[in-house]
Design a protein that fits this description.
Elements: E1 2-6, E2 9-11, E3 33-35, H1 37-54, E4 57-64, H2 69-78, E5 82-87, H3 93-104, E6 111-115, H4 126-134, E7 138-148, E8 151-158, E9 161-168, E10 171-175, H5 187-193, E11 198-201, H6 232-241
Parallel strand pairs: 1-4, 1-6, 4-5, 5-11, 6-10, 7-10
Antiparallel strand pairs: 2-3, 7-8, 8-9
Length: about 250
């Protein structure tokens, strides 16, 4: 079987959030970047597990500049067989989905994985857009996946229970918590990642239809006000006059 895992590079979860002078771009100076955890822990690991059980190939794909290749090599160290970097600096989910779609056409992937979202923008858009480009079924926020021949059984957590779906291959899936357990690359994986193929592909012509006008930080948290439990009138006044519903 042939699996495609789309991976993103994101700032480390402890990185400080700031923007450039005109607030149109994230300030990446001094920031440590990592593979998006949902892509790494759930999508990539589950694809590797299926390859180990059923045979086949896992291809890791990233749309980004050459600076992302350290992150891509980590995907190879975890277990991907080969990798592809589409040499572009995307500014929107739509542009990213278009680039992946053009690469994936004619490649005969049985299953295309994403993490449920990236931890920087939290958009959860690219998978659905890609499925539309390729005219494939799309299942989002999956927590369990099993394959039986050409049919997949997928579970997703929903309000009040679990939804169980069946879908024929090929399709696009975004993986959430529960799909797999994190793998730490071992020394053998790290060494073999150096020799595994990493193909660089030129981007196709595509318009950036989305423009970032401005980023803003949320307002600083206000201090906590403590009210004496005997002073209920003051508590009621604060709730009426100062409390905000978020």
């Amino acid at each position: 079987m042939k699996f495609l895992v789309c991976i993103s590079q994101t700032p480390d979860t402890t990185a400080k959030v700031s923007f450039n002078a005109d607030s149109t771009e994230y300030n990446s100076a001094g920031v440590q970047f990592i593979m998006n955890p949902y892509d790494e822990w759930y999508a990539l690991v589950r694809a590797c597990e299926l390859r180990e059980a059923l045979g086949g190939t896992v291809v890791a794909l990233n749309v980004g500049p050459a600076a992302n290749e350290t992150t891509i090599r980590k995907a190879l160290a975890i277990g991907a067989d080969e990798a592809v970097r589409i040499d572009a600096d995307p500014k929107s989910a739509a542009y990213t989905a278009k680039q992946i779609a053009e690469y994936a056409k004619g490649q005969n992937f049985d299953l295309i994985f994403f993490g449920k979202e990236t931890i920087d923008y939290n958009g959860a858009e690219v998978g659905a857009m890609l499925a539309e480009h390729l005219d494939l079924p799309y299942i989002a926020f999956a927590s369990k996946l099993d394959l039986n021949g050409n049919t997949a059984t997928v579970e997703r957590d929903i309000e009040g229970g679990v939804e169980v779906l069946e879908v024929d291959l090929p399709f696009v899936l975004s993986a959430a918590k529960g799909m797999a357990e994190q793998r730490i690359p071992n020394m053998r994986g790290i060494m073999s990642a150096r020799t595994k193929p990493l193909q660089v592909v030129a981007p196709v012509a595509a318009d950036e239809t989305v423009k970032t006008v401005r980023f803003t930080l949320p307002p600083a948290k206000a201090g906590v006000k403590l009210v004496d439990p005997e002073n209920m009138d003051e508590l009621v006044r604060l709730l009426h006059e100062e409390a905000k519903v978020l």
